[in-house]
Amino acid sequence: MQRVLDLAVRIERSPHDAHRLLSEFVGRWQFPLVDDNDAATFFYWDGQPADAVFLQHWVFGLPSRQEFRRIGRTDAFYLPLDLPRGARVEYKFEVVRGGSGRWMHDPRNARRAFDPFGSNSVCTASSYVDPEWCKHDPHARKGAMQTHRFFSKTWGDEREYQLYIPAEARPGKEYPLLIVHDGVDFLHYAEMKTLLDNLIHRHEVAPLLVCFTSGVRRNWEYAANPRQADFLRLDLLPHLERTQPVLREPQFRGIMGASFGGVSALHAAVRHPGTWGRLLLQSGSFAFTDVGEHTRGPMWDPIVNFVNHFRENPSPVDAKIYLSCGTFESLIYYNRSLVPVFQQVSQGVRFAEVPDGHNWINWRDRLREGLTWLFPGPLWMYYE
Amino acid sequence: MISAGWRYDEERDEPLRDAVGVPVHNLRLYGAFRDIERDAPDLVSAHARKQGALKAIKARYRDAIVAALGGVQRQWTDRRDPASPWFRLAIRHLQEIDALFLAEADRLHEEFASTERPFSHPSVREVRDRIAEALDPCSMVLIAGGHVGVLRNRMSFFGVDQALREKDIVAWSGGAMVLAERILLYHDYTTHGVGLAEYLDRGFGLVPGVVFLPHARERLDLGRADNVAILAARLAPFLAVALENGGGIGPDGERIGHPDAVGVLGVDGTVTPLASLPGDHATRP
């Protein structure tokens, strides 16, 4: 922030030079400014008059709309924000002119994160490490993607899925299976194909077949819906076992998902115990109530009922569980609360909480740790 | 050349051929085993059962290591004295567990050899004849690394280790590991936590009295004295020899390459550059 304060002093001394000083300032630095101590300063100036600027973000625990401070009598604004170590924040600016606000990306920050609803600007603490293992590696051998359709008795319609086949796959060999909720989004926004190629190539993750499914009425299907659990166990799994070289033992069968997809994965494991031996649950929407009613809307009713029942009568989950959640999510409370329950009823739980939000990059960044724990590759055996 | 540790990539050896600059014959052990899977399914099933039994023993071995290594670490933390009788007792216990595992592995290998007599099987005999014929004119055998378990198993399955005893050998990474007396697996930096070092199996003992630790700096936390001391004490009386890129050991046990590239782990917690292996560890048969 010191740079902005110095700028403000210079402008105060030479108000007639404000435009030149601001132009030099924005030309000189990258924004948001982040110092070595992870103190960030957001900055807005487009040379046009503005009434106010707000930071819109999704950091649970902070006011979601924070007003910028104006520099002197200029139309430049700034907002300091101390970031936790390793933090990553997605945000937009709201610029108010003539009484109405307009949301926009940070025009001086090219870093974007994408999701099905659009994109946000991204600010990271200097200590955040952008993982190299999810970037394209020309040396990593590429697995194949296939698209398949099959008829689901449970849903009474055709369902499509994408299947990842590792480069190492050979006739006569069988491989572990992982089923992914919101599969198309995981491929698109979490770079899952690339990171599977890389992690398998490095022997960190076992070669495995990955089935990317996507819901049709997604929120309803994923909200602890018994039909979704039956679809996975009674339709999709037998179909895959019939058509693909997958190992049949539960320890080689995984199911994963984020948000509502995490709920669906857990619900599937509870409804059909002994089927899914590996669970990867990211930012699971595990809302529950200790007393009274929840306030999240009717779509959440079956989830709250399921999680309340699971907490009161924890049934065995015959699986190893990797659980992760961002500390900037309201869901962190629910996820933390489930850890001791999982410790009681699972074959082992590993929990990661990180200073990030409910977004695809957070989920992407955890996949190495989760996949290597649930499906460890033969790195241990490789010396080359 | 043996590159079975590269598994499916066994025959992608052009860069190595180019680097060597003389005619190279790849023994194709990984591919040969795939052929045996097709030609001798009963034998391969018996082999898979043996490997399955070994895996089951391995699980018990790992459980035992966790407990014993905890005891060793506690004794080290108390005194940091490798001569302490409590530390030595804890190490002996760990060594007994290692020895029991290796004995169990020996038993399984011997049972398989005596009941299945794989070398008498026509398909295996054919491969062994081919290997013998290929090796005969060779003045040197190259053994590459890769998956050290697969490398050791394929070499052992076809009895190649016996045929190597009269040959000059250049081996690296996993290839060097299998030539030592014992094969230790290690990695302190896996993404899912520190892995506890464990024996894979015995090596072929062509380099006696040694356990090779290739890529030690990359895979082991050598900056921690307790890590180094415990590993050195556990592997004793075998020398724990760290091999880095750019270094090696020559036919008379002498170091080749940069002094920092070959070191011996000591019970004092340090890694000392190696000038040459002691006389009884010489690599020449």
Would you tell me the structural class of the helices and strands of chain B? alpha/beta
Per DSSP, what share of the residues of chain A sits in E-state strands of 2 or more residues?
A: 25-35%
CATH architecture of the largest domain in chain A: 3-Layer(aba) Sandwich
Q: How many β strands of chain A by DSSP?
A: 19
Report the portion of residues of chain B in β strands: 5-15%
> How many strand units of chain B?
11
Gyration radius of chain A (Cα, Å) is: 24 Å
As a percent range, the share of helical residues of chain A equals 25-40%
Would you identify the regions of chain A where 5 or more consecutive residues have pLDDT less than 50? none
Major beta sheet of chain A, specifics?
8 strands, mixed
Q: Might you state the CATH topology name of the largest domain in chain A?
A: Rossmann fold
The CATH superfamily of the largest domain in chain A bears the name Alpha/Beta hydrolase fold, catalytic domain
**How would you write the strand order of the largest sheet of chain A?**
11-12-14-13-15-16-17-18
Give the integer mean of the pLDDT values of chain A: 96
Please trace the helix and strand order of chain A, writing H or E for each element: HHEEEEEEEEEEEEEHHEHHEHEHEHEHE
Count the DSSP helices of chain B: 10
Strand adjacency order, main sheet of chain B: 6-7-10-11
